[in-house]
Amino acid sequence: MRWGGSCVCILMACADASEADQVGRQLLKLNSGCLVTYRRARDLMYNAPMGKVALVILGTNESSSTLGRILKWLRKRWPNCPLTVVGDNGGGEQELTARMGGALYLTRPVRAQQWSELLSHVLRLDDREVHIEGHRDLAARPTRDD
To answer: From start to end of the chain, where are the E strands?
Structure first.
């Protein structure tokens, strides 16, 4: 899929390549968007794409303090973008940090159905945003009477 104005991407930082494969397979089924993967969340921060981002997934098992800084940076970079953190255990400090940072928290193993529902929801929201933005652009164009 071409990277451009009409293509949205899912950013995923994960140490486990099989998680990225799961997300990639679900995106193929949906036939929408592209997946950009990173081995570490810090790599995402240093090499962030310039295109439209529909979702950021962090599955790197960062410490809570590092995770908090990353989520804060992501909120500044993409204020309206949904964030998801994938961790090994629920109910701990990592989950609390994720939720306080405005992220959805999923525990491993994440089932294919969970990925599918998350991606479908996010890409459906993104389509609606693009449609609304396009409508605003048309409304803002001057007419011949202006």
So the answer is: 8-14, 34-38, 52-59, 83-87, 103-107
Contact between 56 and 23 under an 8 Å Cβ cutoff? The reply is no
pLDDT at 144 over 70: no
pTM over 0.90: no
Task: Assign residue 132 the CATH number of its domain.
Answer: 3.40.50.2300
**Mean pLDDT of all residues belonging to the chain:** 84
Do residues 74 and 98 make contact, with C-beta atoms less than 8 angstroms apart?
A: no
pLDDT tens per residue across span 11-25: 999 989 999 999 999
Asked if residue 146 is part of any domain, the answer here is no
Parallel, antiparallel, or unpaired: how do β-strands 52-59 and 103-107 relate?
Answer: unpaired
> 3-state class of 3 per DSSP?
coil
Domain range holding 107?
A: 8-140
